[in-house]
Amino acid sequence: MKGFTDPSPLRSLTDSRSGFCKANSTFYTKRNPLGLPPNPSLDVTTFISSQPHRGTTAFIDAATGHSLSFSDLWRAVDRVAECLHHDVGIRRGDVVLILSPNSIYIPIVCLSVMSLGAVVTTANTLNTSGEISRQIADSNPTLAFTTVQLATKLPAGISIVLTEDERVEPTRGIVGVVCEMMKKEPRGERVRDRVHQDDTAVMLYSSGTTGPSKGVISSHKNLTAYVARMLTEKSMHGTFICTVPMFHTYGLLTFAMATVAIGSTVVILPRFELNDMMAAVEKYRATTLTLVPPVLVAMVNEADSMKAKYDLSSLKTVRCGGAPLSKEATEGFLEKYPTVHIFQAYALTESNGGGAFIDTVEDSRRFGTSGPLTCDVEARIVDPDTGRFLGINQTGELWLKGPTIAKGYFKNEEATNETINSEGWLKTGDLCFIDEDGFVFVVDRLKELIKYKGYQVPPAELEALLITHPDILDAAVIPFPDKEAGQYPMAYVTRKVESILSEKQVIEFISKQVAPYKKIRKVAFINSIPKTASGKTLRKDLIKLATSKL
Prior knowledge:
CATH topology of the largest domain: Rossmann fold
Largest sheet: 8 strands, antiparallel
Structural class: alpha/beta
CATH superfamily of the largest domain: ANL, N-terminal domain
Domain AMP-binding enzyme C-terminal: 461-536
Shape: globular
Mean pLDDT: 90
Strand content: 15-25%
Transmembrane segments: 250-269
Oligomer: single chain
Radius of gyration: 23 Å
GO molecular function: ATP binding; CoA-ligase activity
Domain AMP-dependent synthetase/ligase: 53-410
Keywords: ATP-binding, Ligase, Magnesium, Membrane, Nucleotide-binding, Transmembrane, Transmembrane helix
CATH class of the largest domain: Alpha Beta
């Protein structure tokens, strides 16, 4: 991991209100410094298990009511790790894929795999067989944890452990079932490979704008820093409802790691459905919902019927991330749910939770901000055209640096060097400013990712598919604003002369090849795609054209 600057020598030159240091144009956090364990041979699972707390119930499956105590959880982690090591032959550095809907078994698998020094990677359950096969070809996992239904998406040749005890005929490749592994008595043999903090712990795939998604490699040290930071958050105690997907960094790091260290109870919904979520709040007296903005908007739109059907009096906090939350949505929510506070946050897969967050009721009343910097990062605002470092209330690209910043991209040195410079600064690709009180405001994205209901959709991937159609000469994909989804992909298409290709045909052509969240939902035909002299698509011109009639 790249270095982390100790700001202490510059404290006297740093503005106490904003955290900005004129001497090096760096914003420093105003939160208490983060204490990290000095042991270089400490894996993140051991760090999590060593944290003292008074929690009793770790996880509850909302669909079945099945619960798992913390003592049962750690017993299961040990037994699954032992089975993986002795029976399956998983060793330090092996990659293990999790392809599963939200489940109480995901934290067990994740913690077990990392305790062995093996690497966890996840795949979106909505992805097609082709998309999953491409990710597997890149990451080369030794083993996959999945369900019987999802196993059909995996290519032949990969060993499989089922995450649920499903009564099925023996299927090629299945080498075990998690719940059976959990029942095996330990042998007493615990000779395993030594795991170092700098070893890779997880590889989560982050979509890019210039081609296929990239595996973000994060170390045990990165994740330990994240968990150590979450241990300091006041709002992380209580009973949580997990609706965010656990294959995503937001869900995996929070609910397979941080809440376990803290001792909070997590009620897991296998999939999101608004009534199921509200029923779980009532049944389990949940205090906190962790959401993406489209779910919060749905809560606003259905507020009257939801409050009539369910007792939501236990709910105190909504933690919202994954995409920007508009001022209108915030105000609408607070009007409908006046006793619930919204705590927003900003982070990236590459920053492992490092960024900005709100953790107090007072700060939550500042609409439009993601909050002050987390206790583990420094920040710079950089002019994207000149590279000049900017100051307070000046808008530019946000750069972050700290112990949670990922090691880089798997087998992609070029992309790593473009995103994380030699000094360890992560170039977020987001246009932001930091105000005179040290609060971070996200203005826009330099990156061209489209965020549909919190999912990242790379335009380049859809464009590459579009131009394979025999009637399409050229194409460009842009984000189109939508009240419910945030954004959805819209395509501008240049047809071949005399082609009668229709909008419906274009939409269907793409729908057959990609996951549902990547579908193109609007098409416009144009004589030519506007481009720069160097051939880059002028997306801003197309966005302006598409939204001019709104």
